């Protein structure tokens, strides 16, 4: 099972070093590498990698700012010369944080962890019923000792929380061990919409849509919750909800 990988580092020698290290892992397939964060953003959106090796300090835009602009964030391993960003890295759910100069053993440990997690996610997606899930489907949810059978029409939104997804329905908010990206692939795009990198919303729960900053939108759900729609996704939402 190949794991699609992209490398982003503004230093040519840094990229070359990472590419040589990645070559030693047959499970990883490098589909692109970038020295420019803006080019990287477009490439990541278009190619949808499973794994991203990302530098932090780059001219024009740092690694965290790049992630903020992505609608779908892949699994990330930060590779940087600076140790002061470690806490912030794990706050954005990074798989690992490797300091330069990169030690081969340290790199291998990070890669093995990434391969194990991403491979398991891919298997889960393949093993689940390939049928598209709609509001009429009922799903089983378990959080601790509590269990629910829930019609998806009753789910207002899904929120990414680290390696989990929080499911909002009827005042309940259980956490399930699943990635928002994999969930997005299974839900009907006629009923559920990827608002941004943190949220999928149920279109039938939208009560109001307002213009927002930089060409984006803000939707208000029937629950009163407000969620920002990025400019890119705002265009898609207009197409979905227009005659």
Provide keyphrases for this structure.
Rossmann fold, globular, 32% helix, 7 helices, 2 domains, alpha/beta, 5-stranded parallel sheet, 243 residues, OB fold (Dihydrolipoamide Acetyltransferase, E2P)
Describe this structure in words.
- With 243 residues, the protein is α/β, with parallel strands linked by helices.
- It has two domains: 3-127, 3-Layer(aba) Sandwich (Rossmann fold), CATH 3.40.50; 138-241, OB fold (Dihydrolipoamide Acetyltransferase, E2P), CATH 2.40.50.
- It is built from seven helices and 15 strands.
- It has helices at 12-23, 37-47, 63-68, 86-91, 104-127, 180-186, 231-241; strands spanning 3-8, 28-34, 51-54, 75-80, 96-99, 138-143, 146-151, 155-161, 164-169, 175-176, 192-194, 199-202, 206-211, 217-221, 226-229.
- A five-stranded parallel sheet has the order 2-1-3-4-5, sandwiched between helices. Strands 10-9-8-12-11 form a five-stranded antiparallel sheet, with no helix packed on it. The protein has a three-stranded antiparallel sheet with strand order 13-14-15.
- The protein is globular.
């Amino acid at each position: 099972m190949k794991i699609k990988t992209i490398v982003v580092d503004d230093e040519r020698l840094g990229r070359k070093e990472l590419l040589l290290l990645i070559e030693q892992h047959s499970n990883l397939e490098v589909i692109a590498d970038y020295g420019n964060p803006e080019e990287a953003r477009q490439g990541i959106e278009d190619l949808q990698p499973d794994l991203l090796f990302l530098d932090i300090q780059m001219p024009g835009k740092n690694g965290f700012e790049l992630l903020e602009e992505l609608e779908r964030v892949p699994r990330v391993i930060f590779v940087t010369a600076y140790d002061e960003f470690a806490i912030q890295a794990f706050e954005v759910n990074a798989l690992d944080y490797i300091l330069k100069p990169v030690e081969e053993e340290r790199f291998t440990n990070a890669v093995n962890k990434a391969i194990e997690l991403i491979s398991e996610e891919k298997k889960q997606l393949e093993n689940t019923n390939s049928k598209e899930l709609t509001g009429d489907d009922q799903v089983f949810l378990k959080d601790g000792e509590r269990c629910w059978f829930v019609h998806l029409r009753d789910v207002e939104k899904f929120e990414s929380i680290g390696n989990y997804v929080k499911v909002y329905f009827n005042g309940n908010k259980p956490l399930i061990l699943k990635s928002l990206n994999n969930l997005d692939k299974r839900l009907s795009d006629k009923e559920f919409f990827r608002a941004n990198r943190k949220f999928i919303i149920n279109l039938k729960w939208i009560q109001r849509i307002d213009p927002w900053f930089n060409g984006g939108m803000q939707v208000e759900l029937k629950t009163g919750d407000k969620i920002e729609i990025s400019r890119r996704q705002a265009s898609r939402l207009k197409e979905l909800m227009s005659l």
